[in-house]
Amino acid sequence: MLFLKTCAAYGQFLSVHWILSPSILAPLQYWTSHFEIFEWWYFRKYGTSFIEQVSVSHLRPLLGGVDNNSSNNSNSSNGDSDSNRQSVSECKVWRNPLNLFRGAEYNRYTWVTGREPLTYYDMNLSAQDHQTFFTCDSDHLRPADAIMQKAWRERNPQARISAAHEALEINEIRSRVEVPLIASSTIWEIKLLPKCATAYILLAEEEATTIAEAEKLFKQALKAGDGCYRRSQQLQHHGSQYEAQHRRDTNVLVYIKRRLAMCARRLGRTREAVKMMRDLMKEFPLLSMFNIHENLLEALLELQAYADVQAVLAKYDDISLPKSATICYTAALLKARAVSDKFSPEAASRRGLSTAEMNAVEAIHRAVEFNPHVPKYLLEMKSLILPPEHILKRGDSEAIAYAFFHLAHWKRVEGALNLLHCTWEGTFRMIPYPLEKGHLFYPYPICTETADRELLPSFHEVSVYPKKELPFFILFTAGLCSFTAMLALLTHQFPELMGVFAKAMTDAFCPAELRDWDCRRLFMCVEAELEILPAPPSQHFQN
């Protein structure tokens, strides 16, 4: 606003002192008055000055400016620590609930394309997860578990596989127990040492080259893991050491059962997979860290059991539970399914949206606000790659993981992708500045791009938050204002030279009949047409 007032005052100063010729001063005052009206309208609509917004958003990054808030300098230490904690929480990576098998899927991709689908950062996070879930402090008391504790830290895949085989060989040693099966009997019990379930897990994940081979190894791991779980369950209250061992055995058993269900899903036994997932969620309802309900949602969508999908969403799409792209976009798919087969943009523009269509559009806007990268993959505007083993919520990695498994479900619903194509970009009109404020969720985190570049391979172009493009009218008005201000500055600095330039431009472009117009009579006619009170004579142009 200060800029506009300065321009207006400067224009009056020029008109009084006759620095500008009438051919230059007339359009300057005309566009200045109109731009004041536009600036007032923009301030009333968006709550900020247009000139200030353009300067902060577009000119400051070009000039290398930094936004320093002096009002928070007194609390800089507390503010920095809070912002760091918020950044860490926003950029927390999660285990991908639908991650693939390394040996049967990721390695096969490498053999065919010669590209590594997993980054070192992603595999390092997986190694940390394995050490957290599959090891405990008492592993050194059991030779096989001690070997596996070192195997999970190995970076070389072949070294890990060799260590798993070594752990299984140790468990093949038989030990004779000096306890008779029947009193006063000479028949002795021959026991085998409990087999190492984590060794079978490693071999199933990394050595098996097909899903069928991985399933066989996981079934062997289930036998060993179930026995260890039952033994530790009886001893868990005998001390902290036994409690930690029982917690480890619980994680191992849940992991094995979940991967067996995923093997069944990959091999086409979807109903069996659904049953295994439901049983697992009933047996261990508190282990929500594995996000087994997302596996269940995907399997139910494959069966087209939409009523069961809605029942799962009713339980997990709660305001108190963390959201994910699977939750938000599955809810949008169900609402779009009710109207997408008959939806037409032309008909909707004529008669307006019905209640069901409005609910579907709002669900799509909600999903897009949570993760804006998913629609480009669902609409096949960007190519898909294999999903990573870890994802960043609301980031490109989560979008890839969701679209990789759910694109087929959207294609199966007639008209769902068409409805998504017609409505998803409307989300950005609802949130003009998504990094500063959100509509249904927290503002979009600014750290997702950096974290996604660490999780995704280098040959993939990481998707960033779609930037809101300014309309052409605003760009045109800004350019015209800048040109007018530059013209006024040059006229003030070089009045004689600009007068010669204006005379030359007038002679070159203006018709001869327009050069002899009476400016005073012309402006008085305009004022009469617009019913504007006449201005003092001193403010009119002279011939």
From TrEMBL:
Which residues lie within the region annotated Disordered?
67-86
Residue span of the signal peptide, if any?
A: none
Task: State where composition is biased (Low complexity).
Answer: 67-81
- Which UniProt key words apply to this protein? Glycoprotein, Membrane, Phosphoprotein, Transmembrane, Transmembrane helix
Q: Which residues form a coiled coil?
A: none
Q: Which family does it belong to?
A: Belongs to the ST7 family.
Which Gene Ontology cellular-component terms appear in the entry? membrane
The record, for Pfam families, names:
ST7 (PF04184)
Name its cellular compartments.
Answer: Membrane
Protein name, per record:
Suppressor of tumorigenicity 7 protein
Instruction: Give the chief site where it resides.
Output: membrane
Top-rank taxon, per record: Eukaryota
Annotated membrane topology: Multi-pass membrane protein
